[in-house]
Write a structure and sequence with these properties.
The chain is mainly alpha-helical and 264 residues long. The chain is built from eleven helices and no strands. Its main location: membrane.
């Protein structure tokens, strides 16, 4: 009987450990899901902020850059499509919304770049303020996207790994959706200026690199030539002193009138 009771006690202890472990894993899934929802709300707020700023930006640009009609229409269409998808999904992320939001970011960025050809618009106070707010909004969206995707990665990893996947399957925890930008043009947005800069040094470097190399060769060849002229400079001062005393004695006897004052 004592052996049976000991075995039952071990089984009960193991069962309690498994129960407490299951509760801990389950609570971890709940915390991860809540963290994902909270991080997505921050992105959703910034996306809605961008929806409000884009119409004002379009109207401001339209007054100065009427030739950018196609770009303005594209930005307006993408903005309306993104807002409609946000309402249909009730603010939840999905791949379709992530794609349209990426296209909208690319269109807004292209519009701001095209405005560089209009100096009057660049000096407009309203446009500068809208540009600054949109830039700050885009930065916050990018930062929020990184934070959100990191939380999704950790949450999905727990769902897929053993033995936490047992609790995930038992409690019906599903994988979260990433909010990624799959458009390579959006990811390489700052590559326009770097392309111009990378072309300038290549043309200048071909003409400038030989010059410093030549100067360096001249500087290193000078020390090797120093030992040769050193004996020449030492012989020249030895030849000059004997010439000076030979010239001074004949000048003193020719000036005989000046000797008596010095004798006194």
């Amino acid at each position: 009987m004592e052996i049976i009771l000991g075995i039952l006690a071990v089984i009960v202890v193991i069962g309690l450990i498994a129960v407490f472990w299951g509760f801990g894993v389950y609570n971890g899934f709940i915390k991860g899901r809540n963290l994902i929802q909270e991080s997505w709300r921050q992105i959703d707020v910034e996306l809605n902020r961008r929806y409000e700023l884009i119409p004002n930006l379009v109207e401001t640009v339209r007054g100065y850059a009427a030739h950018e009609r196609n770009t303005l229409e594209q930005v307006t269409s993408l903005r309306n499509s993104a807002a409609a998808l946000a309402n249909q999904a009730h603010g939840a992320p999905n791949q379709q919304r992530a794609a349209i939001e990426g296209e909208l970011s690319n269109a807004v960025r292209s519009l701001i770049v095209s405005v560089e050809a209009y100096p009057e618009l660049k000096s407009n106070v309203n446009f500068l303020e809208l540009q600054r707010e949109l830039t700050d909004t885009e930065d916050r969206i990018a930062a929020g996207r990184r934070f959100y995707n990191a939380n999704v990665r950790d949450y999905n990893t727990k769902i897929e790994t053993v033995p936490s996947n047992i609790i995930a399957g038992f409690a019906n925890f599903e994988k979260a959706t990433y909010f990624e930008v799959n458009d390579p043009q959006v990811r390489q947005a700052p590559g326009v200026n770097f392309g111009e800069i990378s072309q300038r040094p290549t043309g200048q470097g071909q003409g400038q690199l030989p010059n410093p190399g030549q100067h360096q060769q001249q500087q290193y060849s000078a020390p090797s030539a120093n030992p040769v002229p050193q004996p020449q400079y030492q012989q020249q001062p030895q030849q000059q002193p004997p010439q000076q005393p030979q010239q001074q004695p004949p000048q003193q006897p020719q000036q005989g009138g000046y000797q008596p004052p010095y004798q006194q």
